[in-house]
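Journal club prep — side note

Before the paper discussion, L.F. wants everyone to see what a predicted structure for a comparable chain looks like in token form. Sequence:
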Amino acid sequence: FNKAKSIKMDKQGNLSTTNRSEDMVKYDAITFSIPVSPSYHKAIPYVILFLLCLAGCCEHLCYESPIPLQRQLQSNLQISTTQYNLFFSLYALPNIIFPFFAGYFADKIGRRLSLFCYSMLLVIGVLMFAIGVSAKSFAVSLIGRIVFGLGSESFTIVVMESLSHWNFMFLTFSLAAHKSFMRLGSITSNLLFPTIFTNTHNLSMVYWVAFAFIALLVICVLIFILIERCVERNGPIEPPRAPISLWNVCQFPKMLWLLAVFVGFFYMTLNSFNTVSSALLQKRFFFDVKYAGILLCIPLVIILICTPIFGYIIDKIHRHSLFSLISTAVLTANFIFLSASPSTKHYSGVYIFLILYGLCTSLFLSAFWPCIRFLSTKELTTTAFGIVFCIQNVFLLIGPLMAGLVIDKTPNQAGGYYWVSVFFSGTSLVALAVGCIILCSDYM
């Protein structure tokens, strides 16, 4: 994406492209929305970065809350592994279509109102899931996850658009910091929830604590809205937008659609592994539930630390497509290594796998997501993110279900967790192939 095309929109809402040289790929007024009011304090973009990153941390903590207590949750609700994976597959089901309309809706009415609406969906979803676990009702818990899914992806794409607006001079770093804070939510989930359950033996308490975190998310959103309104009193924080229509979607470059498929296969591998990672460590390598949660913090800590660092470096040297491909290649080799590993008690190779898993994930998170902003206009940024999230969620719907079926159908091979490792190797290999196509197209 160092020799990309500049994409702009005329007054009639039509997209057009012009060639630009390598030295022009850095942040310019055509590609990035620059706040037009100089009256706000220089610290405000950093405050907004912190608020939205903290909100992302709370959202992801609630998303991953079923993972560290998978076996206990299955026992409480009396469900199979395939049914448990419905918590993640049906979470993705409405997001096959909804993020596109959510992004288009946000581009139409503005990020503040849409951000508040989507945060309310998160509150309702977490509340219903907590009630379902307390009542031992699988149906209520599942509905709660679907409602949470409606708000979660939409909330994330509006947050990413807000970050790209306010932090245009360090776009890769700000998006990387957001992803890093999301991993902080995963770390908190893996450490806090098993500890609460171990001390109280009350599964319901765990998910009411998760509800407290989603309340913190709402507070962050309200403060963000208040800050933007205060800044707006001294002048508009962005220039007037050109009219947009659904026809503009058809004018997005082909590279955007390739990127959507690429991230779909990559996240299919990540998400499917994450949903069964705790049980895999317990059943294939015979770690106890608490130590498995601690082990899963290894890649999360690496992602938390390395993602902003990689983001800062990539902001300086670019080469987003190359770094995305490198991370996918490492991920593929890592899962092949896991597949070839012996299913023995406390296998030491698990530590190598988790370290490499954290490094390649943090590199991908840093390199990939700014590419979407490079290939969209200011007026259609949220819509572009929405399209990518829609296609990504097609893969997120299929992935956990297929992983659950592999585990349930092959119970004699390390409890089904050997062949699911092979499955992860296959999906990451397909992602690598798509990444190669993108890199070749980019250099051509």
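L.F.'s comment for the group: The two ends are 11 Å apart (CA to CA). Keep this in mind when we get to the figures.
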